[in-house]
């Protein structure tokens, strides 16, 4: 980067990501599309092929993803033209169209896109020499790969399908601490309920409702294949069982079932911050919440300046039934500053599908 484009410390906003594209720090075998550029992240695209493998893996120091992949004797799957069906319960490794040559001081962090998480498609980024998923080390130069494992539905994908997204971080910026979060909330409410802070803003599950009100959805097993690129193409009732509010405001999660729930609080992300949903406590292993954890600047900002969107929670129980109660803490929002003000906020672009949302399935479903 030249001196006049050197980013300040923090997450890079859309215009800074575009600068990385212009300098070649982000390159691709096909031109970067406008719709890939989000307020504080870049959507990544699948390449022309994927490989079915028997196990997930990390390459480890000094090894490439290609080397480790070859050692597993993978089965190649073409993603060209109409693409291919990725079967649920199977692990696939796919090269991405984008590759990186990051400048000094810039690193990356990846997460599934919101629609990917809501379809229960377990997706993680892998880079050469890495011993951690979804992490791109500072100054990384090389290809990008996606690990893909559909859990509830078999899905059709193709070359160019966007399943995950990448944030870029300049310097070693630390998340906002409790004092800073409280100060932000006092100046402009982050949530519409009393603030709870512990290593981030605590998010609680919402299970209260009027009799007959839908408070969640459970995925129906053995449903049809879902085309990830087909918007509003499927009747929700063919894939999801509604969960109605109970008088005791409880829900028992069945082992290995997948649920779509919503936070009790409405929230908003300030224009100069971005956030990520993190586990409430790594020691709580009974259930997993929120595969797709990125929240862009501007998310949930209502026309009156008040929080207007609930966080949709992708929830999967593990080995035993687990009881959830209304208001139970299930995650925490970790806030980071942007290096520069974003030139476009969430909700302003054509790809903002979940602004002002309540409980909402992915964009693929209607009804």
From TrEMBL:
Signal peptide: none annotated. Residues 9-171 form the 2'-deoxycytidine 5'-triphosphate deaminase N-terminal domain. Gene3D superfamilies: 2.70.40.10. Pfam families: DCD_C, DCD_N. It comes from the Bacteria. Residues 179-365 form the 2'-deoxycytidine 5'-triphosphate deaminase C-terminal domain. One of its GO terms (biological process) is 2'-deoxyribonucleotide metabolic process. One of its GO terms (molecular function) is dCTP deaminase activity. This is dCTP deaminase.
